[in-house]
Amino acid sequence: MSRPRIAIPLDVNVSGRYEQPRAYADAVARAGGLPLPIPCGDPLLATEYLAGCDGLLVAGGDFDIPPERYGEARRPACGPSRPGRTAFEEAMVAGALAGGMPVLGVCGGMQLLAVARGGALHQHLPEDLGVSHEQPPPKDVPSHVVEIGPGSLLERLVGPEPLPVNSTHHQAVSRPGNGVAVSGWAPDGVVEAIEIEGARFALGVQWHPEALASRDPRQAAILRGLVQAAGERRR
Question: What is the mean pLDDT of residues 120-129?
Answer without folding.
Answer: 98
